[in-house]
Amino acid sequence: MNALALPAPLPAALAAWARGGPGQPYVLLADRPDGTVVRCGDAVAKAHAPGSDPEALAARIRVAGSGALAGVLLPPLRTGAVHGRPVSLWPYGTPVDPARPEDAPWEEAARLLAALHRTGPRDLPGPVPPMRGPAKVARALRRLARAPQPDPDGVRAVRAAAATLPDWARGEGVPPAGGAVLCHGDLHLGQLVRHPAPDGPWRLIDVDDLGLGAPAWDLARPAAWYAAGILAPEAWLRFLDAYRAAGGPAAGPPGSDPWPELDLAARALTVQTAALALAKAAPARRPLDEGERLMLDSCVRMATFRAELEP
């Protein structure tokens, strides 16, 4: 085959789809097995993971465009397919600056989550698929199982911590009935942008895991970070107070202990994070960084605490 006839690499093909022709300039924002993202001027194009459920993804994108979520989720511009992958186009928004952690918009994230969780499923277009938080735990554990020569002590700690979770929290069963609300499914600071750029209001992005589920899952990462010593107590309390003040249903009323509601999701997220950390470190033959080590230490404590409770 003539080299000129070869298909363009996925990032270039994404840019061509976004801009309506080949040879378009772009900035590569992410290129991972689960998604490739490019910026083309004032828009961002994403190729979703191979094997994505097309109906579930379409439903999630429809939800993002719903008027019921105006001011909460960034709305899509259009969808399509590139290289056999589902793709979507979104307005560009200014992301959180990782070099300025002191400016992290924890309160804004909390208020957006509360608004998302208060949105009634009946106000949304069509059926809404399940939130994919537990599925991400299962995927992280499978990735760790396939990793080349991961740290054996770390693997044992993660597996022991995972064994403390109910099957459904590891993506191996059906969640308990009742209490499901609209959830983001993968909340972290990389899922926030200002739109219109550069200094518009904050909005949530990335709907690949959006769906109905336990709202505590969206608070799991900051809760787990706080428990591990990664997130400062002051930032955690600002986040928690803002979520409660905005009517969020996942952490109990103001002044109450949030952990009866958040503990399970935070432990599941800890297992997921530590499993991914070990799986990524193994092929690179690198040690865990400080944050990764703290999450693995949390897994050790989870497993130890369970062992101490057993007769």
From TrEMBL:
<feature type="domain" description="Aminoglycoside phosphotransferase">
    <location>
        <begin position="44"/>
        <end position="254"/>
    </location>
</feature>
<dbReference type="Pfam" id="PF01636">
    <property type="entry name" value="APH"/>
</dbReference>
<keyword id="KW-0808">Transferase</keyword>
<protein>
    <submittedName>
        <fullName>Phosphotransferase enzyme family protein</fullName>
    </submittedName>
</protein>
<dbReference type="InterPro" id="IPR002575">
    <property type="entry name" value="Aminoglycoside_PTrfase"/>
</dbReference>
<dbReference type="GO" id="GO:0016740">
    <property type="term" value="F:transferase activity"/>
</dbReference>
<dbReference type="InterPro" id="IPR011009">
    <property type="entry name" value="Kinase-like_dom_sf"/>
</dbReference>
